[in-house]
Amino acid sequence: MKLLFKNIKQLLQIRDNATISLKGSEMKELPKLDDAWLLVEDGKIVDFGKMEEIPAFEEVETVDASGKILLPGWIDSHTHLVYAGNREQEFVDRINGLTYEEIANKGGGILNSAKKLQETSEEELYVQSARRLEEVMKMGTTAIEIKSGYGLTTDAELKMLRVIKRLKENYPIAIKATFLGAHAVPKEYKENKDAYLDLLVDEMMPKIAEEQLAEYVDIFCEKGYFTVEDTHKILAAGKKHNLIPKIHVNQFNSIGGIQVGVEYDALSVDHLEVMNPEDIEALKGSRTMPVALPSCSLFLGIPYTPARDIIDAGLPLALATDYNPGSTPSGNMNLVVSLACMKMKMNPEEAINAATVNAAYAMGLSETHGSVTKGKQANFILTEKIPSYGFLPYSFGANHIDSVYINGKKI
Ligand SMILES: N=CN[C@@H](CCC(=O)O)C(=O)O
Ligand SMILES: [Zn+2]
């Protein structure tokens, strides 16, 4: 089945196959075609061009995109979308003056979510997660990474990863799974963290690898959670099972997590709210993508990732939501793109590049996703009639999405 978009006001993010990621000043360029057409066949982009040169097509279904912009769907490379219930009460506790750390120290936070998840059946967890996945797809997300890490026992971590597997099977969106058993130390292991690390390495990882339940491995490298040494241990064990690192670092403190990530050739290092010059230096010359999560900063009232320092140092940057019940109960990539412009001083071009091309890199999907390239998946956002692409981040809070296409099909 062929699908033809005609009269597209602006076709954004046109790239050749060689574009894998964008860094430094390259992020300011957003290649586009005005008054364009685009042809889709078998779920893939076949060709595109200017309306004045449109060939005669037969037996095609046509979409009139007059006044509308067509751009690649958002790629969300960092989420915890599979979780049970919510943490609304902690939100109120924070309004009333407690900090995220104080809440975690009194048994809330990640351990609170873990307790809820352990008590929730796999079926119910699937139903709650599928609802969230459908919600983010409608908001333009066309590829998504999902982490475990609210299980913290072998059974509950496997339950989470099986739910992710079922989502992969039942939805057209590309999904990558990450094993984040090292998200927090369970209460029972408070005095013996090493025994928990052994459980992750000796019991959970082999099972996950055997059932092929994850592509990536993650750890929350942060004061009060896991140290740089723990990070070495988990990433080295992950390597034995072909689990590529994508790690939580520098959210509250800079303790050397970026350097370990780079040493293990991590695909991405995520959060980065607190960065010192050595952290930026460590990323130079590496293949590791820095990933910022501005809606987490908004919700927790913590600093925003210093995007200007990162990009102006010649580095790439990707954007993601961090969708989770504690620090970011929102999976809205449109808001993330707006926040990147408003709070991190990224230009609209930089923010769109960070949420498409660079985000695809951060999920290992550069060959199939993230740009309008012949042969790539036909994953698009078709906007409402809007004056320009800059209007998307400018009019924050309104998504301006007419429709979303995944593999050439309107969802
Ligand atoms: N920082 C670590 N993990 C999550 C939040 C976890 C939670 O509060 O439930 C994050 O990326 O923000
Ligand atoms: Zn996270």
UniProtKB/TrEMBL annotation:
Its cofactor is Zn(2+); Fe(3+). 4-imidazolone-5-propanoate binds at residues 87, 150, 183, 251, 327. GO terms for molecular function: imidazolonepropionase activity; iron ion binding; zinc ion binding. GO terms for biological process: L-histidine catabolic process to glutamate and formamide; L-histidine catabolic process to glutamate and formate. It comes from the Bacteria. Fe(3+) binds at residues 78, 80, 248, 322. Zn(2+) binds at residues 78, 80, 248, 322. It is found in: Cytoplasm. Its EC number is 3.5.2.7. Its main location: cytoplasm. Residues 69-409 form the Amidohydrolase-related domain. Pathway: Amino-acid degradation; L-histidine degradation into L-glutamate; N-formimidoyl-L-glutamate from L-histidine: step 3/3. Belongs to the metallo-dependent hydrolases superfamily. HutI family. Catalyzes the hydrolytic cleavage of the carbon-nitrogen bond in imidazolone-5-propanoate to yield N-formimidoyl-L-glutamate. It is the third step in the universal histidine degradation pathway. HAMAP family: HutI. This is Imidazolonepropionase. It comes from Salinimicrobium catena. The gene is hutI.
